[in-house]
């Protein structure tokens, strides 16, 4: 079983990471990862859907950072293990967050679409009911977005806005 002294005794690797797992009597999948920069991070490795499911690693926290101790990390791993045993994926919210676009990503797509529609409109092609921006409007909107919108909201996820 992992102890604070056994964690501190793990040698720092020159490259890559070293993972030491909790021994017999410990929590299945719970371990500590030691990085090349000597950072010790508590992790929980699990698999949903049996042997066919993909293996996932949940980062619990780094030793000493934000108050993480071996006892707090083991308690958190136990809570996560209960979720996993019920068939829930602790990383589902993280996956959803990764796939959510930022305001800047949405703006870039919207801007390109409006400019393209404006070009089609000027050429007399496309749907005349859904007109794009004229060149002057596109230039003004791009300047306003670059100056005001994107610096303040660009990195935010679209789900964070109301």
**How far is the first residue's CA from the last residue's CA?**
47 Å
Number of helices: 5
Poorly predicted runs are none
Strand order within the widest beta sheet: 1-2-3-4
- Helix coverage percent: 40-55%
Proportion of residues in extended strands? 15-25%
Q: What's the number of extended β-strand segments?
A: 4
Describe the global form. Answer: elongated
The helix-strand sequence is HEEEEHHHH
Characterise this structure:
- The chain is an alpha+beta fold and 162 residues long.
- The chain has helices at residues 4-8, 70-85, 92-99, 103-122, 135-153, and strands spanning 18-21, 30-34, 40-47, 55-62.
- A hairpin with a 7-residue loop joins strand 3 (40-47) and strand 4 (55-62).
- Helix 4 runs antiparallel to helix 5 (135-153).
- The longest helix is centred in the last third of the chain and has 20 residues, at 103-122.
- The chain starts with a helix and ends in a 9-residue tail after the last helix.
- The model has no long low-confidence stretch (mean pLDDT 89).
What secondary-structure arrangement, pairings included, does this model have?
Layout: H1 4-8, E1 18-21, E2 30-34, E3 40-47, E4 55-62, H2 70-85, H3 92-99, H4 103-122, H5 135-153
Antiparallel strand pairs: 1-2, 2-3, 3-4
Helix pairs in contact: 4-5
Give a quick set of tags describing it.
5 helices; 162 residues; alpha+beta; elongated
In short:
The protein is an alpha+beta fold.
């Amino acid at each position: 079983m992992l102890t604070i002294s056994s964690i501190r005794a793990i040698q720092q690797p020159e490259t890559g990471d070293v993972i030491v797992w909790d021994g017999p009597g410990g929590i299945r999948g719970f371990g500590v990862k030691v990085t090349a920069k000597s950072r010790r991070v508590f992790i929980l490795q699990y698999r949903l859907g049996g042997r066919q499911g993909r293996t996932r690693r949940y980062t619990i926290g780094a030793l000493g950072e934000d108050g993480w101790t071996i006892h707090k990390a083991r308690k958190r791993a136990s809570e996560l293990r209960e979720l996993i045993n019920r068939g829930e994926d602790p990383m589902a919210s993280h996956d959803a967050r990764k796939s959510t676009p930022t305001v800047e990503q949405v703006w870039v797509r919207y801007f390109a679409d409006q400019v393209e529609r404006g070009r089609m409109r000027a050429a007399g092609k496309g749907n005349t009911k859904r007109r794009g921006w004229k060149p002057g409007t596109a230039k003004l909107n791009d300047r306003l977005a670059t100056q005001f919108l994107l610096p303040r909201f660009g990195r935010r996820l679209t789900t964070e806005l109301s």
